[in-house]
Amino acid sequence: MAEAQNSPTLNSVRAGGPLPVGSTTAGSIAVAGESTVVSRMSAPPSFDVADFPVPHGREEEWRFTPLERLRGLHDGTAVAGGTGVRVDVQAPEGVTVETVGRDDARLGRAGTPVDRVAAQAYSAFEKAGVVTVPEEAVLTEPIRIAVHGEGGVAYGHQVIELGAFAEAVVVIDHTGDAVLAGNVEYVLGDGAKLTVVSVQDWDDKAVHVAQHDALVGRDASFKSVVVTFGGDMVRLHPRVRYAGPGGEAELFGLYFTDAGQHQEHRLLVTHNTPHCKSNVVYKGALQGEQAHAVWIGDVLIEASAEGTDTYEMNRNLVLTDGARVDSVPNLEIETGEIVGAGHASATGRFDDEQLFYLMARGIPEHEARRLVVRGFFAELVQQIGLPDIEERLIGRIEEELEASVA
């Protein structure tokens, strides 16, 4: 599987675009100097739905999304009803778990909605969940948030806040069937360390659209692991920005897109303070007719963000005919005073040499393919750090592969 890599040079501009199977791209790089390059990452945020026109599918941020499969989340026709979703939180001693009203001052601090669905979700939820880890608390057990769909349309809002020098692992597990739009906020105090594992293991007909905003404090560390398997349509928008120098963000993602599924991950890391780091690695496997995966990776380095060190990578493994991948990495750099910035993207089929090597040693073809896929995802599964979740995800990968040879 060939890989395109690029490290930016001043005043270089390249246009990114969709990836047909087997091709590669280095995406786009824009470096602001004397030029009039306009950021494609600068959609004005707002909490007001009226500030966002109903998308028609030709906008840059919606051109890959099948709007008709959003079930009305994008145009206001999806009205909350039915049993919606049930949210259960299990937290270690010392962690505060609250349900708050819309007027709580802690809501909206990590980020503002950047599209109509996120604004609709913020305007429509009735109660929000707030989980707070106090300063200097180091949790030895994870916080587990189970979101189970029970039918119908639902809007939600969740805040995870860590005090200064606190350390925690949070698992947000989505299962069942629902049409859900929500916003999730992660607020990290100075020196805090947060790992979040967000699992999308929905039933086949579920629709899930969410914006995830992380505000990373001075010298704080944020790690996100997004895992997407189920659902008819899943569109996630992780976003990161920094509240002080020395912050680090790692964004990992794993997705397995099956026949007819649309899974879309759109990331934005905004380096807005000096001497911060970010690393993005997303990997996906696709199989079946009309399986469609979209990955958009945007990194913006503002003029004030000297000393930034960033890299992003997306790899896709296409297992059968009929699948489609769109992979678009982008870098926009407004200062030349950086440590490093680069990106890579690759999409391809099985490596015939790997299969031949395994089969030549007596391993049947279907077993060889299974081993290759497991190896492809192994480094990301290991980032989770929770044996029960890791075993479950390996099991789900095995189920998908067994279905492909059944």
UniProtKB/TrEMBL annotation:
Matches recorded under InterPro entries: Fe-S_cluster_assembly_SufBD, SUF_FeS_clus_asmbl_SufBD_core, SUF_FeS_clus_asmbl_SufBD_sf, SUF_FeS_clus_asmbl_SufD
Name of the gene encoding the protein in the UniProt record: sufD
Ranges annotated as biased composition (Polar residues): 1-12
Protein name: Fe-S cluster assembly protein SufD
One of the protein's GO biological processes: iron-sulfur cluster assembly
Region Disordered, annotated ranges: 1-20
Protein family membership: Belongs to the iron-sulfur cluster assembly SufBD family.
Limits of the SUF system FeS cluster assembly SufBD core domain: 149-376
Spans through the membrane: none
Domain of life from the UniProt record: Bacteria
SUPFAM superfamilies: Stabilizer of iron transporter SufD
